[in-house]
Design a protein that fits this description.
The complex is a heterodimer of chains A (about 350) and B (about 550). With about 350 residues, chain A is an alpha/beta fold. Chain A folds into two domains: about 1-135 and about 265-315, 3-Layer(aba) Sandwich (D-Maltodextrin-Binding Protein, domain 2), CATH 3.40.190; about 140-265 and about 335-355, D-Maltodextrin-Binding Protein, domain 2 (3-Layer(aba) Sandwich), CATH 3.40.190. Chain A contains 16 helices and 13 strands. In chain A, strands 6, 7, 8, 9, 10, 11 and 13 form a seven-stranded mixed β-sheet that branches. In chain A, strand 4 and strand 5 (about 130-135) form a beta hairpin. In chain A, helix 3 packs across helix 13 (about 275-290) and helix 7 packs parallel to helix 10 (about 200-210). The longest helix of chain A has 14 residues, at about 1-15. Chain A is globular and about 65 Å long. The longest helix of chain B has about 35 residues, at about 55-85. Chain B is an all-alpha fold. Chain B has helices at about 5-30, 45-50, 55-85, 90-100, 100-105, 105-120, 125-130, 140-150, 155-165, 170-180, 185-195, 195-210, 215-220, 230-235, 245-270, 295-320, 340-345, 350-380, 385-400, 400-415, 425-435, 440-450, 455-460, 465-480, 480-495, 510-520, 525-555. Chain B has a single domain, classed as MetI-like fold (Orthogonal Bundle), CATH 1.10.3720. The chains are: A alpha/beta (about 350), B mainly alpha (about 550). At the A-B interface, helix 4, strand 2, helix 5, helix 6 and strand 8 of A face helix 14, helix 20, helix 26 and helix 27 of B.
Chain lengths: ~350, ~550
């Protein structure tokens, strides 16, 4: 019954949108895209979560055959660079949560210059030189087990977390999971941002070491183990994943830290050597549009970046709840500082020392 | 095959092996990706890796894991093979398909099954805790990793040894029995020593596989910082921000270098292949050795191994597939659901993935066996340096860790233009799989070939048969068990394989292995579990049928 109802809502939702033919005619690139007929996407957003978005896009542009490659961020990078260098065809549209790798590729001239008409609806910091686009606004959160972590041990902010770790070491021993910055690029990015924004970050890291925190490369494995109680808290989890997971596991809780919450963005760009550049433009404009962002927020449970999309799972909702505490990771070349070798290795060394590894 | 054609078989194998390997070697001497226009010659990668303490400790850990698991899996696998093939063990026909589960189950799924069963809050751990107040084992430790790796690789050596044992002339065992030896004594002094080549092959391969393990150490060792060579390699994809191909290439080559002493040692031990020829000219009806009073203890051993190696992780995975939550403080009866299976229906690529996998495993596996058989026959009874070259050659691709072998194949298909158009077809996957499992298939076939006594082929030749006819009418029929066993093994390897083809897969050519890995990243472990249950059921059924058919050939 629940499925049936959500299906009905889904239909009702689309009934309210423009009819396909309108959009197909109105977009300036539509005719050219029709000739291309195809769109190749490399993306780290998993196919189950992206499905509603693709369905809606196909409803808009039924003449496009979309080849969606669900890959991990390293695979996306490895494939794209090798395929580009060999002159073989590669993705038209690159969409990945490895913000630094995406910016690095764009800054090396791999991205097509394209001023999306949806620019106006996006924050200024989310667009880099009309080449790389931040497409989401996802809070970096703390996930915890409601069943097992006592209410008074649930941290409400980063500072609170440090305090609790010191005050109740027995509660957290062996019970903390976080990203392994050595193996996960996303994890590294979040932690370096933490270190920038939060003066007590290295205290926190040392407390992790004392508590015997475990490190992971997969959000899924972390959330699974928080759900089972092997761990009771996972630090620096992308909020969208927790929301998806909460649908199935009632024992998962989500905290958006009140002192600051990093907002992370999946970055998209159109390949400069795209064989189907017009189709790629349609897709970029679609996922940045109010319509696409609404599907993203309501169906895929991925936080929308547009301020005009209402609801909880949106930038608007986050800004309302947290105000100035939201700290977006901006889409620009500052992020490349993290790829600078010596600094990077220095950070890893400090991290390992803190973790007593 | 005409003798003059023989070197071409070796050259063909050399080409497919050195394609990817050569690229990796070349890459290791550069400062960045080989296709980058600014790439220059550099020894920096060697300097970095060989002076990195992380590499040293990962190497040490890998060595320990490899030794440990070989010591566990080879004796146990050989014993199981003897019990199931040569004795009247009760219920052996039913046991065999179960025994092979760890081979085709994805290692991350296997490891995850153990987490659900005997992890800190696994159901078995919680029972134990309720019973004795604590959990007396730690899954996330070096010994945990070694024991699980050892136990789950028992089927690998089982397959080799059992295939050789099946072709063994029973009269030698019969003779020992008549002379008064008990079943254990026969196993230890007659049957197993006679199939020593297969035992040694399996030992060498399992040792090498220990270096190549990725899924198990990633799930069981990584969270606590226990690094082996492959997880160290994984770290190198991110450590410097962008994947450091040159560093990864050096690590891969370090593992490749290990194959040389390994193959050398194995060749020395097998100098006189004639010692092992036991499929003689005189036909013998096979009668299983009676175990007598030992039959129940023997059943006990097999069941205990099955319980720990197959039942425990499989129950873990199956349980996860039918509950919405698990772990501490959860009443399992209250969270039962079939939703995960229903949700799979909404996964558009699933059916295609299963079909592709079965296609690749079944038909692709058979084609690979045909290829291996051709190469095996070319090298058969050929005293030549070419053959020693071949012995080293075939081990090399399997020594390359999955993370890098997948990349290497992508590079080959991208930059070697004549085959570039094949990149997006299932053929590219098949070729990559065939090359990687070369050592497996070929060894299985050549081990069977070794046991055919030369007199049979000579007899055919004496009455005027040409070499091709000898192979077709004498040699191949005699090793048919080896061929079938080899196909089964290839089928299962191909079903499980993922990393080799990871960069060759696309929409339309996805396989179960890739679906599982792509689900792993974002954490649909409930879906992975449901998918794995279906996989085990489907492959199990096929195995069961195949083994039944194999048994009929036996009669």
């Amino acid at each position: 019954m629940k499925k049936f109802l959500s299906g009905l809502m889904f239909l009702a939702f689309f009934a309210g949108q423009h009819s396909p033919s309108d959009a197909a005619e109105s977009h300036p690139n539509a005719a050219a895209a029709r000739k291309e007929g195809k769109l190749i996407i490399y993306s780290s957003t998993d196919s189950a979560s992206v499905e509603p978005l693709l369905q809606d896009f196909k409803a808009l542009y039924p003449f496009l055959q979309v080849e969606y490659n669900d890959l991990n961020t390293t695979e996306i990078y490895n494939r794209f660079t090798a395929e580009s260098a060999s002159g073989a065809g590669t993705a038209d549209f690159m969409w990945s949560s490895a913000m630094d790798l995406q910016i690095q590729l764009a800054s090396k001239g791999n991205a097509l210059n394209y001023a999306s008409p949806e620019n106006a609806g996006l924050p200024k910091w989310a667009v880099w030189q009309n080449q790389a686009y931040g497409t989401t606004f996802e809070p970096v959160s703390i996930a915890y087990n409601k069943r097992l972590l006592p209410a008074d041990a649930v941290p409400q902010s980063h500072a609170d977390f440090v305090r609790l770790l010191k005050a109740k070491p027995e509660v957290f021993h062996d019970k903390i999971a976080t990203f392994d910055p050595e193996k996960s690029g996303v994890g590294f990015l979040m932690m370096t941002q933490d270190a920038k924004v939060f003066p007590q970050f290295w205290d926190l890291a040392k407390e992790f070491g004392g508590a015997g925190a475990k490190v992971y490369t997969s959000t899924g494995a972390m959330l699974e183990k928080v759900g089972s109680g092997e761990h009771t808290l996972a630090y620096n989890i992308i909020g969208s994943y927790v929301l998806l997971r909460q649908k199935k596991d009632a024992s998962l809780g989500l905290v958006l830290p009140r002192d600051y919450t990093l907002a992370f963005s999946r970055i998209a760009f159109i390949s400069k050597n795209a064989r189907n550049p017009n189709a790629a433009k349609l897709f970029l404009d679609y996922i940045l549009s109010k319509r696409g962002q609404t599907v993203m927020s309501e169906k895929s449970l991925v936080y929308s970046i547009r301020s005009d999309v209402p609801g909880q799972i949106t930038a608007a909702g986050l800004n309302k709840d947290l105000g100035k505490a939201v700290k977006p990771i901006e889409v620009n070349t500052d992020i490349l500082a993290g790829l600078e070798q010596n600094k990077r290795l220095e950070f890893m060394k400090q991290w390992k020392e803190a973790l007593r590894r | 095959m005409r003798p003059t054609l023989r070197p071409f078989a070796v050259i063909g194998v050399a080409l497919v092996v050195f394609g990817p390997l050569g690229l990796i070697l070349y890459q290791s001497f550069l400062g960045e990706a080989f296709f980058s226009p600014t790439a220059r010659f550099s020894l920096g990668a060697y300097r970095y890796v060989f002076t990195d303490s992380g590499f040293h400790s990962a190497f040490g850990t890998s060595l320990l894991v490899s030794f440990g698991m070989t010591l566990i899996s080879v004796p146990l696998g050989s014993l199981l093979a003897f019990l199931l093939v040569r004795t009247d063990l009760p219920g052996k026909k039913l046991l065999e398909p179960w025994l092979l589960v760890p081979i085709f189950l994805s290692p991350v799924v296997l490891a995850f099954g153990y987490v659900v069963a005997v992890g800190p809050v696994g159901f078995f751990s919680l029972w134990t805790k309720a019973l004795i107040g604590r959990v007396p084992w730690n899954l996330y430790s070096l010994y945990g990793l070694i024991v699980i790796a050892g136990l789950t690789h028992v089927p690998h050596s089982f397959l080799y040894v059992s295939s050789a044992l099946r072709s063994l002339d029973p009269s030698v065992e019969e003779a020992a029995r008549v002379a008064g030896a008990g079943p254990w004594r026969i196993a230890a002094t007659v049957s197993l020593p006679l199939v020593l080549p297969s035992i040694l092959f399996s030992g060498a391969l399992i040792f090498l596989l220990g270096f190549e393990l990725f899924g198990l150490p990633l799930v069981l060792g990584d969270p606590a910082g226990l690094l082996v060579l492959t997880t160290y390699l994984y770290k190198l994809t991110n450590l410097l921000g962008v994947p450091s191909y040159h560093l990864m290439a050096v690590v891969a080559l370090a593992i490749v270098a290990l194959t040389f002493p390994l193959v050398y040692a194995q060749r020395r031990m097998l100098r006189t292949a004639g010692r092992f020829a036991v499929i003689g000219g005189k036909g013998q009806a096979f009668r299983p050795l009676p175990l007598g009073a030992l039959r129940w203890p023997a059943v006990g051993i097999v069941l205990l191994w099955l319980a720990v190696t197959v039942l425990l992780p499989l129950v873990g995975v199956a349980l996860r597939s039918v509950v919405s939550q698990w772990g501490e403080g959860i009443q399992l009866s209250e969270v039962l659901t079939l939703d995960h299976f229903r949700e799979l229906q909404g996964h558009p690529n699933l059916i295609r993935g299963i079909l592709n996998t079965l296609l690749l495993g079944g038909i692709g596996g058979a084609l690979s066996v045909a290829f291996y058989a051709a190469v095996g026959l070319a090298a058969h009874r050929w005293q030549s340096r070419w053959v020693s070259f071949l012995d080293y050659l075939v081990m090399l691709p399997r020594a390359l860790p999955g993370l890098i072998v997948g990349l290497a194949f992508l590079w080959v298909f991208l930059f070697f233009k004549p085959i570039a158009p094949l990149r997006t077809t299932l053929f590219s996957l098949w070729l990559a799989y065939t090359v990687v499992w070369l050592a497996y298939g070929l060894r299985l076939i050549s081990a069977s070939l070794l046991q055919v006594k030369p007199e049979l082929e000579e007899a055919a030749r004496v009455i005027g048969a040409r070499q091709g006819k000898v192979y077709r009418d004498v040699t191949l029929p005699l090793i048919r068990f080896g061929l079938v066993g080899s196909w089964l093994l290839m089928f299962m390897m191909f079903v499980r394989e993922y990393s080799t083809g990871v960069y060759l897969l696309g929409p339309g050519t996805e396989v179960i292995g890739s679906l599982i890995v792509s689900l792993w990243g974002t954490g649909a472990l409930d879906l992975i579990s449901a998918l794995s249950v279906i996989e085990v059921a489907a492959v199990g059924l096929i195995l069961f049928i195949a083994l039944r058919l194999g048994v009929r050939l036996d009669a």
